[in-house]
Amino acid sequence: MYKGIAIAAVVLAAGTVFVNIILGMADHHTVDQNSSIEAEETVTYKDQIYVPKGNLETYLIAGIDDPGKVQEVTEYDGTGQCDVLVVIVRDRSTDTCKLLSVDRNTVTPVRSLADDGTYLATTDIQLSLAHSMGLDQNMRAENTVDAVSTLLKGQKIDGYAMINMSAIQVVNDMVGGVTVTIEDDFSERDPSLKKGETVKLMGAHAENYVRGRMDVADGTNQNRMQRQNDYEEAFKPAFRSKCDSDSKFPLQVYHALEDYMTTNIGAKKFCRLALLLSDNKKDDRVSISGTYGSDEEGWQTFTPDEDSLQQAVLELFYKKKD
């Protein structure tokens, strides 16, 4: 496997608003953003026939374990893994979104690439490693999109935004901080975050809360993902409040993120997604159950339950045939 690249920074909220929302608002290089996929064929599941919903747009937002702003990669060192992966499916007919948080440790077919992007092989490894292949940032992003699409039974992903985790502090502080109740033991990572206290997260404390894993609580990614979901729910009203008082706020956030991300989503689309996501309800989130374990090198793994994965794909992209 690709050398224990500690899942280190992980976060930008694994499946978290920051990523979600924030993501929801940028746009850099524009992609063909017609509707997503639509496998023409129907799917039969438990004697029920399903057909593609149609009129969908699908986006992948990922938090990248890289410090600072996006920089040119000159040699492979295993860094730059995904710490957070969120799939956003927008139904244009209802102007609503569904979110799927994908565990970074999900074992799925991932393409291995040489430094110049030459295809080497496809191996079942942790999804987070897809973004550490090759040296070009766009190539890494597209390889991650390919891996997520493969996991989701070949569904097309229309756009992506890969955001370095350091951006957490930037956006958190732009909304004036985010108030949460500390449920985990942060004594080793950030003693100022005391279990049981309700605090307004600012600056580095917000990043510690969202990214902390190995030295927080039981050290698992599933624990962190829950914490990131909590952060997301607290972030939404703070973000929405800023938008209500300043209609240009989403665009300001986008510009603040530009140096921290690689994306092919346009600014206008980003801003629209951001507003939709800030209004999103908890029950609009889809999940995949599975089994946690470790590989031969001791790194955490998550093996999706095939039935749960199929149900998630159907809920996101299909509807029952009349």
UniProtKB/TrEMBL annotation:
**What sequence ranges are listed for the domain Cell envelope-related transcriptional attenuator?**
82-230
What InterPro entries does the entry give? LytR/CpsA/Psr_CW_biosynth, LytR_CpsA_psr
Q: Which family does it belong to?
A: Belongs to the LytR/CpsA/Psr (LCP) family.
Name under which the protein is recorded:
LytR family transcriptional regulator
Q: Which organism is it from?
A: Blautia massiliensis (ex Durand et al. 2017)
Organism lineage string? Bacteria, Bacillati, Bacillota, Clostridia, Lachnospirales
